[in-house]
Give the backbone structure.
Amino acid sequence: MAKRIVFLTLVVLILCATPVFAQTGAANSDPSGMKTVGVCIGMGIASGLCAIGQGRATAGATEAMARNPGNTAAIRNMLILGLALIESLGLYTFVIVFNR
């Protein structure tokens, strides 16, 4: 049941993000260069927060494995899934930087 809810949530999010790809390239002209500065600052913030999130997730998983060694496999699987989702935020912002 939980897998079905997660899958349906992902489908809805993907369908809601589709109109973003319909934008034209005319809005990308910025003669002052402030947009580039803003994008670079945003990328730096996103990368820093991804690093903090990954560190906290790894610390929490390590502590959970130390407290409950019998459940190490499940904790490791959830850690890998969580780290992949955290890393996707950094990759999405990286893609946005180059598509500005």
Q: What stands out?
A: Helices lie at 2-17, 34-67, 72-98.
